[in-house]
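hey can u run this one w/ flavin-adenine dinucleotide bound, need the structure tokens asap thx
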Amino acid sequence: MSHRILIIADHLDGRLNESTARTVACARQITDREIDVLVLADDGAGIAGEAAQIDGVSTVRHADHPANAHPTAAVFAPQIVAAAEQGQYSHVLGPNTTFGKDLMPRVAALLGVPMVTDIMAVHGPHEFDRPIYAGNAVTTVAAPADQVLVASVRCASYPAASTDNQAAVEPITLEVELPGHTRFISLEQQASDRPDLQTASKVVSGGRGVGSEDNFRLIYDFADKIGAAVGASRAAVDAGFVPNDMQVGQTGKIISPDLYMCFGISGAIQHLAGIKDAGTIVAINKDEEAPIFEIADIGLVGDLFEIIPELERAVG
Ligand SMILES: Cc1cc2nc3c(=O)[nH]c(=O)nc-3n(C[C@H](O)[C@H](O)[C@H](O)COP(=O)(O)OP(=O)(O)OC[C@H]3O[C@@H](n4cnc5c(N)ncnc54)[C@H](O)[C@@H]3O)c2cc1C
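ok here u go:
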């Protein structure tokens, strides 16, 4: 079987998510042959143009259809299967973002193949490392070489491929009967000008210690001051301080910022699973025994309600 790779573009509101370039970086370790990107959108030419700039990409194909205006796994998956079969790809990859986690298992199921989840290192076209036990151990898995390999890529493990390329962009028609049992109704999301949590270079997170939704304003304001994305522990999410898509950790988002600052977070193992690839970890907690201090590069024992205003004054 050839080693041609199809990558499913992750995009929202007409912009390509950086997770696509991170997935390309992984794909480039799998093969030096063709890497194509598939954009499913209602009008995907602009997004395809962005994807064409990613180094290592040969061709970007965009399948435009009104049903693709909003990403739903049920509608996207059969089209991806058709594209994979049409192009005889050996690998179909997506990012391990919310988008990819929802989509890729459905693609694997429709193709009737197993799936490799969360590739974090490549040993060969069909041999990869992936995390297990909430990231506390790494296992090497070998996938069958005689069938299409469907996988998600752990974006935190790959820097985005650079963007000096000018790949070909082609529209593609996919003859697929789209399912009607699932349809898009609405998307509720917080409008935010802040960087995307999963690709931000700086993240400021708050935990149960922040105390309330109102108090979280402090975290947002400080994050805005230093140009950071905002995350949270599951306890903060469960208490209703912040929405679920801000959760960092085993059952939240896996992130890899250069700087991770966490306020009022104890450092439970499930939270740490989300920040294993973070660069410098700064922890602020009033309990000097908090486990977060065991992994923090810089720890500050104190009350976050006093320390945040001081930090704000310091950064000006
Ligand atoms: C299957 C499973 C999956 C999970 N997945 C996740 C996940 O994805 N992400 C996640 O985060 N958790 C996850 N959890 C939950 C996890 O076990 C912890 O319960 C959670 O991380 C605790 O959040 P916290 O640190 O905000 O709260 P706590 O553990 O209650 O810690 C609050 C901290 O705030 C400090 N504090 C209080 N007031 C102040 C103050 N004024 N100034 C400074 N510090 C203060 C306290 O000293 C304390 O250390 C999961 C649990 C399970 C069982």
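Residues 21 and 39 are 13 Å apart (CA to CA). anyway lmk if its weird
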